[in-house]
Amino acid sequence: MKRAAVLAATFAGVATALVGCQSESEAYRRICDAPDHLSLPANASSSAREAALWRWIHEEVSNRAALDTLEALRGLTFAERAERLRNLAEAHDIAYCTLAEFYAENAPPEPEAAPVPAERPAPAPGPEATDSAATPPPPDAKTVDAVIQEHLEEVQACRAASEHEGAPPKGTVVVQFLVGVDGRVAGASIGENTTGDEALADCLIDFIEDLDFPPAPSGVAVVRYPFRFRGPEAPAAAAAGGRGPEEGNAPEGAPEAGRGEANEATPAGNAPSAAAAEEE
Is the pTM of the predicted complex or chain greater than 0.70? Predict the structure, then answer.
């Protein structure tokens, strides 16, 4: 019986090593096949289906280079994502990329050009239109902060587990994550880590991915959330003590979200790589 337990542990270690050594070609193959592994209701919205796809990919793909390339697609339209995925599939000898066809089939049609009248009518008097009037409200950053603050004991556990020779970590770890329309986290990655402690960063990713948030009112949301560690003191999460983002201008350190459907959501600052997922 003891021998069987030793053999089981050995096989588990080998399996873990194999997963960690996933090749880039195998990673792209898993990414392309993602829609084939999910069974979603036919009436599910494209944003809900995409959130489920991203969640599955982050669970099944561990190659860092492939995940970084995939994250760069977030700033593109569905049609552009489809074309980029087809090129990646061809480069890695993948005959058919189901994920590319998913984006191609769900790409919104391009608007038809309206005919230009011979003489443009004078604009009707009225209040000047603003971008904010047409922009859906972003997810409530204070709500995101409140959920994380309720679980600070788990952040403390990550901090305690990462201490080396009695020296607590010091610095900032910024976690970027995607909140689906159902409030579940569809993927998380490290945007910045000044502590130099990868174990702490991995622990915070696991912590974030297990959280449930209120559904995003404007669709899928991308959030950047910093955890600050001050050496011997307790870690401080963003907006601690009730400090939250000001209306219309989220300060540095507050959760910042994208807007609209999943294909439009971008991280704070409109960086093209969204949230370069760094999971292995």
Answer: no
